[in-house]
Amino acid sequence: MSPLPPQPLSPLDGRYRRAVGALGEYLSEAGLNRARVQVEVEWLIFLTDRELFGSRRLDPEQQRRLRLLVTEFGQAEIDELAELEGTTRHDVKAVEYLVRRRLDALGLTDVAELTHFACTSEDINNLSYGLTVGQAVREVWLPRLREVVAALEERAKAHRDVPMLAHTHGQPATPTTFGKELAVTVHRLRGVIRRIESVEVLGKFSGATGTFSAHLAAGPDVDWPTLSREFVTSLGLVWNPLTTQIESHDWQVELFQAASHAGRILHNLCTDVWTYISMGYLTQIPQAGATGSSTMPHKINPIRFENAEANLELASALFDSLAQTLVTSRLQRDLTDSTTQRNIGVAFGHSLLALDNIARGLDEVAVDEEKLAADLDGNWEVLGEAIQTVIRAEVTAGRSSIADPYALLKELTRGKRVGAAELRDFVEGLDLTDEAKARLVALTPGGYTGLASALVDHLDD
């Protein structure tokens, strides 16, 4: 067997690259290294701006040319870093050497020793992950999640008045509307999105064990905590003053748990949509050229929602693993977080792929109102709840002497099919006022949806 040419091992980088490739701008190894270069460059400029240790302030043109290393970071820098790391066997040290080479090329050798000054690798890494993960969530993942929520909201409002037989424990239950059920999912996801938006991306910049020891040894009269805070916040991050060698990753844990929570809500949506399709409540719109089965020509499979289910399960497993691992670091530092964090992009990749499938899947289904109406008309027994509740209110008001209304309706309806005529005759024979009887006789399963439609208005709160 002849060997294959180099192939992507992950389907995210192969089959599904079109759907998730935008994350690579931030959460790939190259994206991480570009952020590392950014942190190194900005720290150097930050120090020279303050003319520490007799350094000279770089003029605007020198700063601009130095920052081009970040904005023009590309394949040449990726290859050069690989070559450097082949010697250093240390990824952050390779970045430091790359920056030093560029300083030499720019005639800035006199400030080269301020490159990576007083930094441990984790000072660079934690800020780089803060930048890349924050940008990936804000620029790619969260907008796609909001698009899905917006699509669900649009459908919730469009179908707010479409009555549907509810099913609790898989059995016919008090009717609702299709739109109200979608609104529940929208409301849940909005809550999680608020949690995600409120996560503060933290950063530390305090040396080998978080004590500013090397800083103080080099500059005993410098207010290093204040400079650290100023530098971290200049990158758009929130300063963490109390850390070990690493930033404790608690913000990442909070983010990943919320992302996993959102995924589980979406998984619930997918299983419900799949079930509605199997029940005929939703019909699938044929897509030109698509094949549902290699042998059964009639089939249209709900593959978008099945694919989304699987990818949400993978994403949640990874998010949960990330959260579990990153919350712990032995003593002042161990390396378990290093490999773990390299899979952040994989977790968000599977989640983004699921969002893409859900968005496309929603465009490929339609509500079958005739099927919904037929199912409601075949389950008049669900009005037993309304009848026994009205009787109890009438008994309480002294307008009826019926004993144990619940048992009375249980005997009539439990495990039985009861039609409109039977219920009408049953109600007419009850000890109720004419007004109460008229209200009950006028009820239909399709009209017994309570405030379902009005509840959708809460999406505009």
TrEMBL record:
GO MF assignments: N6-(1,2-dicarboxyethyl)AMP AMP-lyase (fumarate-forming) activity
Report domain Fumarate lyase N-terminal positions.
69-308
| Record keywords | Lyase, Purine biosynthesis
In its UniProt entry, what is this protein called?
Adenylosuccinate lyase
Role according to the record: Catalyzes two reactions in de novo purine nucleotide biosynthesis. Catalyzes the breakdown of 5-aminoimidazole- (N-succinylocarboxamide) ribotide (SAICAR or 2-[5-amino-1-(5-phospho-beta-D-ribosyl)imidazole-4-carboxamido]succinate) to 5-aminoimidazole-4-carboxamide ribotide (AICAR or 5-amino-1-(5-phospho-beta-D-ribosyl)imidazole-4-carboxamide) and fumarate, and of adenylosuccinate (ADS or N(6)-(1,2-dicarboxyethyl)-AMP) to adenosine monophosphate (AMP) and fumarate.
KW Cell inner membrane (keyword) present:
no
Q: In which pathway does it act?
A: Purine metabolism; IMP biosynthesis via de novo pathway; 5-amino-1-(5-phospho-D-ribosyl)imidazole-4-carboxamide from 5-amino-1-(5-phospho-D-ribosyl)imidazole-4-carboxylate: step 2/2; Purine metabolism; AMP biosynthesis via de novo pathway; AMP from IMP: step 2/2
Q: Which Gene3D superfamilies match?
A: Fumarase/aspartase (C-terminal domain), Fumarase/aspartase (Central domain), Fumarase/aspartase (N-terminal domain)
- This chain's source organism reads Diaminobutyricimonas aerilata
Which part of the chain is the Adenylosuccinate lyase PurB C-terminal domain? 329-449
Q: Which GO terms describe its biological process?
A: IMP biosynthetic process
